[in-house]
């Protein structure tokens, strides 16, 4: 059987090599429009920044190495421009020779990827993108030859922030412009606020809630009229699935504009498959169509489509979309749904915020992180998790991703046996603590209040009780709160006002203790989830907009 | 209700504070024989080594702080010397005053911990142990005052190796003496061999397969007659549950010598509970009794027993025993069963060895690790996993521990969505790769051979085929192997001998490719699991003894 694969990066190359490992019988031809195959897409920003100085390190294979080891016929600079489904052929343009020819196929695998979205704006031709090795070469050449001093990165997503950090490494004054009120859409605003602070701490400018109106020769003009210096402009406002070929061939697209495939990666034509960033995936939680443009999912699909073509049983299960990005000294990781999406979908959910240390506090080098887990308060099912901080964030999100995927409940997290030694975690690991808190909430032992609910609750007559020390209180508190340190509380019950009490401490632990101690005293009590730290970070820049939203609806 | 708790470290203190958080109604009295409560046991070796210079950092609470915050009556230097079950009292000795008194209880919780095992040997009085703050103080004082130049650490378990490393930090010439043929019994010998190399690389002496015969004034004489210089002797040959009180009170012990408890931590007396290192736990895999002397399990049990006493539904599920230890630059982590135990129990199992990098190879700083996973070849159930290497070993073992606990199969590992960016992992994460390999084996696509099976297979007529480059082959190979680099293989099929072929490469990947390419050529082919690296590490020191065992039985 002759299998033709369009696209020689993650999904396409995984399909090709897996198919060969499954047997010598297939003829396998791979077409790649670019000059490189199987390159490390995710390394491009770091090559630009000089972290990966040698460009060759990004090139994991060559057509020659693939021919030698896997007997693959890989043709670069070869663009598939049309598919004839009836005749089972593709029309291929040799980009160097300028000629075209037909190639037959028995099975066709499309892995065309996605392209950076470029909006139609005046002057946009000057803006660069960063998706391919050719893009990285252009950007690197420009940095070397023009020595730009200022840059605007449009878009505060994963690639945007990685690019901003790497331009900053070259000494450029960089400003990130993001239309939304926060960077990194997959996480919720109170965690994104930590990333905002990190960018500013490193001298990266950040403009939120504004888009680009025009690109001028040395500047960028924003939708709010601001003009930013910009010797260099990089666009990173997301990617769009490459569906031109599929559309021309009459294959079905999905509701999100990607190529529609079934669990076996089969398109609406039973002889044509598609994998990678160009196709829509199924969300594990609600079965909806989602993009998930991630290299690991592309690799997984590529391997799987080879199995399917070889007649092995294989199907892709729903995706939860785990991801991680480094932003200067922070690690930001996420799995499953965030609260914004749960709220928009009207799904009942409970959030828990904690601020644990990466490892035992008594062992040197422990650094803080902020974790948030979302679960269904009725079933206990884990719906999503996110973390921002130093060392160990990726580990906790990976653990939570497996728990989510395996269908463990939030309380089950309490009983996970995780590797503990003081360099690696705590005897009660941050993930165990999330489970303990979830169990306290689900069994009704503790009631919690979220940071964005404070304004409404106080307006409705609740009193704020700060159980931190007097010194902590003096250094910053929620306006209008009474301060009684937790250890003084038993002796000062008479000082408490009537009505609902919202207790808070710095991180949530002492607040939990105080809340427990006050249970049975006749007060209606709730603990501020995530403590003053979550509240203060979240409200510092988000309060105006989000408290407004809370009043309107939540 | 009056609850008396014996022991104020992990299990006891977790029980006390949780019980108070559940309500103000109980009177809670905690007796502690030592001078300190709630101290960081796991930090003791690092305090001795000066990594945690301030002793106060190890003391997480004081009786005063516990009284203030949790209204706990904690009495240190107070040893419970007898239990009267009929009268529901304990007899308490005030170690400072030298007096004794009775204290009544409605519920009694025993958390006496475990004590270092001290064998009855000539001169043993000179040997120190490292279990309590008092032990650490003694060791620290001796290091300061006597300035010893040499030390023998008896026992190559977790505490023994941590102690050896920390004595080495003080400049002592340290030798570890271990009766078994390997250190760190929870891992298998071919991974322990990496730890042996790490110890030797740092100049720590290692004597395996020998015990201590006598402790002399400046030396230690071993069972094999060797005499080692030893200004200092530290005993770390394991702990024994503290069961004196329980035995005296007539409570049942389990088959492993610990206090027997049910899922609710109840002993054979319905009003007496026990938690922590003194009690036996249930193995999740086969339901047998196991010790699991780990701080996180003690904490978990302490919290749980408080829930039970307060009338909340709670039960402890079977343990899988995840653990981690740092040995110089190596992280060693393990979860579930190892192969030695599976073999001894006669359980059918399949091992997979890999040697992945901590993160994408093209991003700077990637370091290698060795992972091993064990699964049931019939059901696919994960039975255990272990890892030795640099950064990221703890993360992979935690992920595998959750997968094991959640009942995922080895193939399910292929589909886990783990956080990927080049600083954190690979687009095919090491855990995904384990899943891919397991799936290849379970579906019959690939056959593998283990390092310890080579001798037998060659004796039975199999031929060894090294598919690495000529340079790699020349630098070291399995004796008697033919070298045909994988990329030359298709053109050199005629050079292959008849009969079974055992293919190997450096790490296992090229071997897998070669094995796949040779399928269909009529050869019976198997790939050496873990490649030359696993074989060479394992056989370098283990071959004489283990290949011998292999011939005899495996």
Automatic annotation (TrEMBL), chains A, B:
The keyword Flavoprotein applies. This is NADPH-dependent 2,4-dienoyl-CoA reductase, sulfur reductase. Gene3D superfamilies: FAD/NAD(P)-binding domain, Rhodanese-like domain. InterPro entries: FAD-bd_OxRdtase (IPR050260), FAD/NAD-bd_sf (IPR036188), FAD/NAD-binding_dom (IPR023753), FAD/NAD-linked_Rdtase_dimer_sf (IPR016156), Pyr_nucl-diS_OxRdtase_dimer (IPR004099), Rhodanese-like_dom (IPR001763), Rhodanese-like_dom_sf (IPR036873). Coiled coil: none annotated. Belongs to the class-III pyridine nucleotide-disulfide oxidoreductase family. Keywords: FAD, Flavoprotein, Oxidoreductase, Redox-active center. PROSITE patterns: RHODANESE_3 (PS50206). Residues 458-544 form the Rhodanese domain. It comes from Micromonospora halophytica. Pfam families: Pyr_redox_2, Pyr_redox_dim, Rhodanese. GO terms for molecular function: oxidoreductase activity. The keyword Transmembrane does not apply. Its cofactor is FAD.
